[in-house]
Structure formats: C-alpha cells, structure tokens
Amino acid sequence: MALFAALISVLACSPVSEPHQSNAYQAGAPGIGDADFPTDGNGGYDVSHYGLAIDYTPATKHLQGVTTVQASATEGLSSFNLDLAGLRVREVSVDGSSATFTHKGNELTVTPAAPIDKQDRFTVKVVYDGTPQPAKDSANLGTYGFIPTADGAFVASEPNGSKTWFPSNDHPADKATFDFAITVPAGVTALANGELTGRPTTTDGKTTFNWSERHPMATYLATATVGKFQLRQGASPGGIPTVAAVDPKFASVLDKLYTESGRITDYWSTVFGPYPFSSTGGVVDDYSAGYALENQTKPLYGGFDPDEMIMAHELAHQWFGDSLSIKRWKDLWLNEGFATYSEWLWSEHMGKRTADEIFKTVHARPAGDPIWSYPPGQAKPGDLFNESVYTRGAMALHALRKAIGDPTFFKLLKTWTARHRYGNVTTKDFVDLSEQLSGKNLDPLFDAWLFQPHRPA
Ligand code: ARG
Ligand code: ZN
C-alpha cells in the first residue's frame, strides 16, 4: 500500500507529465450520474432534439432506423456515448463528417473526426438496423422497451428501455423534443407522441406517419406503437385535441377511451393547472403487458379495458412525471405517489370513497405489511415500482394535505406544476416548496412518511 501511494506521488510530480491544457477534451462519461443506474444516460452533453426515422416490418420484426440527435457539449469532448441495446450500427456521423464508433453492451461510443468544444452544438446521425430485443427484468419491471407484437409493436420504455429502439441519452434527467417519421406496411398504423404533422403518405405499399412532440420529453415516454388500430380524433369538451386508438379486439372500448380521456384531462387541468401538452388521449393495444404507461400525450394500456381510475392515474402523470420529470430514479414517488393520490382525488370527485377514507383503510394495514418496511422516498433500483412508492407515496401527500389544509395544499399542487413545468425535480424541491407555501417545518412529516422503515403514527 505505502509503496503504491509513494509511486503515485512520484508520478504526480513527474516533470514529464503533460502541461495542463485549458481547453482540454475528454471522453464523456458512460453514465449521467444516477448512482442507482450507473450506465443509464451519459455525461458531457445535453440533448435538445431527437429526430427518429423508423421503418418497421411486423412480419419480419425488422427495424431500420436513422436517429438524429441534436445536442450541446457541457464539456470538451474527445468522444461521447449514446445508450443503445442490441441492433447493428452501420454508420455514425457528427456534423456531417463520418465518425468512428464502438458498440459494446448498451454503450455506443462515438469518436468524432474532430473533438467538440465545450458549449458547442453538434448533430449526431446514427444509421442502424436489426430486430429489437425488449428488456426483460426478473424483478418487477416485466418486459419493456420495443416489444414486437402479432401485428406491430407495443412500445413502453419506462424506466430505461428507449435504448432497445433508438440511440439516446436514456435517462429522464435529459429531456428533449422529438420528431418521428415511422414507416410501416400500408394498412398498419403508427402512433407516436404529440400530433401528426400532415396526412400519412403511402408509396410502394408503405405508409409513413409523421408525428411531432414539441414539448420536452423524457426518453422513456417516447413511443412508436405500431399495429392495426381504430382511431377516434377530436377535442375534449374543454378544447384539448384528443386522439384515442384501440386494437380491433378492443373496438367496444374506443368511445369510452376517447370521451373519458378528454373529460379527465379537462378536470385535472382545473386541479393541477393548465394541461402542459398540445393533445391528450390514449392507446389500448392487444398486448398483455401487465401495466399501463403514461407515454407523453398518449398513455398506453397493455391489453386490458382501462377503467376510469387507471385513466385518471395515467393522465395525472402528464403533469407528474411527464411535464415535471424526476432527476433521479430514487425520487419516483414524485411520479407514482402523485398519480396514485390523483386516483383518490378522482374517486372523491366522483362521489365515491373520499381520499381520507382510502387513506384510513390503508393506514389500518397491520404493522407487518410490506409497505411499512419500504420507505417510498428512496425507490430501490431492484424494486423500483414497489407498491409503497405508489400507495405510501400517496399517503404522504394526504398527510401533507391534512397538515397544511386544503387551500394551501391545492395551491401547492398548482404552484409545483407551474414552477417546474417541462423541467426536472427532486424530493427536496417539493419539501422546500411545501414549507415555503405553508410556512411550516414539515421535515418530521416527510421524514416519517417517506424515509422511515415503519408505519407512521
Ligand atoms: N409508470 C407506470 C404506471 O404506474 C408503470 C410502468 C412500469 N414499468 C414497467 N416496466 N413495468 O403508470
Ligand atoms: Zn403510474
């Protein structure tokens, strides 16, 4: 040990070491800095826009992709990484010049012909193809990412499955706008986030759908769900453009999905503040995922007829999770606790059980119930979507509501969504705002509800 340390200090003082360069270039880190997911996302740059051109053939499960990433460097870069799982990279260019690359595991390392200066904007183009392999998780994530189905693909990528279909900075801490050009066999529909930018065009038996999401979006919320779909388009009573789509197997659900998605989005706009995006809606595909996902503007329901509660949950996520995104996965209760509490608010609004009644029922669970030993304020990477993150997270909000009173609580919800609209948030941000608006020290309350491994009194 001592010898090793001495050797290091000799090397550090060595006169042959390089002089310090003020405009140094380095390799961008292979992770964005989320300790629980060390290789998710990447260091050294910030993405502003993804342009995804995807050609997908359901019969062969073959995907051809051209992804264009517009980014700016946050440090001088000799090389940088993108996240990509499987697939074959054919060609990479940076600002139009061919770049060298290696693709090992989930890391695509790109070395541009010339290094990139700190703060410079640059554009990366990646040409790739292959059969997407969805992520399969033995814990509680199930199958996610780009999932081939009988007639297309079910695309739900939370938490880190975007890398199964496009090269990205795959972490919610780096949000960007998206354009999609999705080409599929004629007769098949491709659904992505945001709105169609024109009529789909068909040539040589293939149809291209152009969608655009003009508001910042986390990579896991991007979708390119493909298949036979029946569509209903229009607007909610409050005037929010609405798109509902169902697999023909769920034809009888289309009108309810359309009507309720619009009605619920309108109601949440009165409770949480203005709807953050340009359209709302939902998609029911014939794939039994065992979950739904709050894909931005188009929640996706995996092979079941969604009831009002789950629609209320996924649409509440448009504010909590989508407009306001977490910076670290450990703060997942800011998504799931809020969306679950929204279910309770919806129940109350519908004249069914009140939030207080639901809270009391859960609180009556025995001391040995697993939600009491899992503190929801620190979601565990191996058990991210634990029920505690949802239910005990919701209970934390109800405890807060009781402590600060309804007027302050509902003002807090609107202030929270307004202040951090399209941004990233942490638990500390929420605690600070709660204390600021209520004028109370709420540390003991949040500590008991979010961080203690036992049932709060
Ligand atoms: N955010 C989703 C919801 O509660 C759950 C996503 C679960 N993801 C997964 N890979 N199972 O609405
Ligand atoms: Zn949720």
From TrEMBL:
Record bears the keyword Hydrolase: yes
Q: Which residues form the Peptidase M1 membrane alanine aminopeptidase domain?
A: 309-449
Q: Name the cofactor(s).
A: Zn(2+)
Entry protein name: Aminopeptidase N
Reactions catalysed: Release of an N-terminal amino acid, Xaa-|-Yaa- from a peptide, amide or arylamide. Xaa is preferably Ala, but may be most amino acids including Pro (slow action). When a terminal hydrophobic residue is followed by a prolyl residue, the two may be released as an intact Xaa-Pro dipeptide
How would you classify this enzyme at the top EC level? hydrolase
Q: Known InterPro entries for this protein?
A: Aminopeptidase_N-like_N, Aminopeptidase_N-like_N_sf, Peptidase_M1, Peptidase_M1_aminopeptidases, Peptidase_M1_dom, Peptidase_M4/M1_CTD_sf
**What is an example of a Pfam family matching this protein?**
Peptidase_M1_N
What the entry lists under CDD domains is as follows: M1_APN_like (cd09603)
Domain Aminopeptidase N-like N-terminal, residue spans: 48-221
Organism field:
Nonomuraea purpurea
Tell whether Hydrolase is among the UniProt keywords. Answer: yes
- Gene Ontology MF terms: aminopeptidase activity
